[in-house]
Amino acid sequence: MTADEKFMRAALREAAKGLGQTSPNPAVGAVIVRGGKIIARGWHRRAGEAHAEIEAIRAAKSAKGAKGAKGAKGAKGATLYVTLEPCSTHGRTPPCCDAIHAAGLARVVIGAIDPNPKHAGRGVEILCAAKIKVTTGVLGDECAALNPAFNKWIVTRMPWVIAKAGMSLDGRLTRPPGEGQWLTSEASRAHAMRLRATVDAIVVGAGTLRADNPRLTLRGVEGRQPWRVVLTRSGKLPKTAHVFTDRHKARTLVYRGQSLRAVLRDLGKKNVTSVLIEGGGKVLGDAFDRRLVDEVHFYLAPLLCGGPHVVGGCGAGSSAASLLLHDVRYERIGGDLHVSGFLYPTPPS
Known about the structure:
- There is one protein chain.
- This protein has 349 residues and is α/β, with parallel strands linked by helices.
- The protein contains eleven helices and 13 strands.
- The strands form two sheets. The chain has an eight-stranded mixed β-sheet with strand order 9-8-7-10-6-11-13-12, with helices on both faces. Strands 2-1-3-4-5 form a five-stranded mixed β-sheet, sandwiched between helices.
């Protein structure tokens, strides 16, 4: 591992602190290095607040110098490692490129280039024009993979779609009547709750709302309450459902008679960069049939119980037309098996 990779990995650890908190901005981390040692760290906490680079520069100013004086050198002459190309335009905050130049940083090491075609590479050009040494592409793939939802949304304005389900070995969603709601273990449900905390919205169908009356809230984890999205054809929904009566009722959206693709487009316009489809089988089936799913998280319980299938819809017409996951992971959680992976993107229609 090179020195640049070592320090970029430290920046990645900082960036991970913001996962699920920064939308519609990406999670970004930064460290400032002098003499082979990290003197300051920073990470983007939420949209509208200081970017990772600014956090790190401020931390460098407040750090004690060799003689114990605060801000003895600040960031002047040091190297900044940042997971994403510094911003070059005014948004909710001023451009980071200006702050980097003003801080007197001598070198900037960048992981991933800004995926926004309007801005990609502009930050690098501005820094180079300011006579700051720039290195790009250090752990670039890992840095880009940190923000798949942002990377998709900033280009297509469509959210990243995650399909999630807990099921029996025979592909069923529920236990027989009268035996309770849960198929998977408490450990699997806790794992899925952490996944829920990373998205901007949770999508369910009207059937799931009527049958299970889910709360679709965050429990046992910290994070922002995602939007709760209900899809319905008839519009006949129980007014007493939790999503319409609890303290998060203002975070509930109902879409009647619209295609899933149209719903996703509208959510994208609302700055929703990621959604978690939690059911039921019809909604999941429609999402897979229409090739709208980007990521899959299935939790398999060691049960054979019968009931509604996890994925409905028309299905693939042949094995060759079946959807194939890549970068698949198999993880044992208690007595359950967690299978996750990604689907190759399809051209928008």
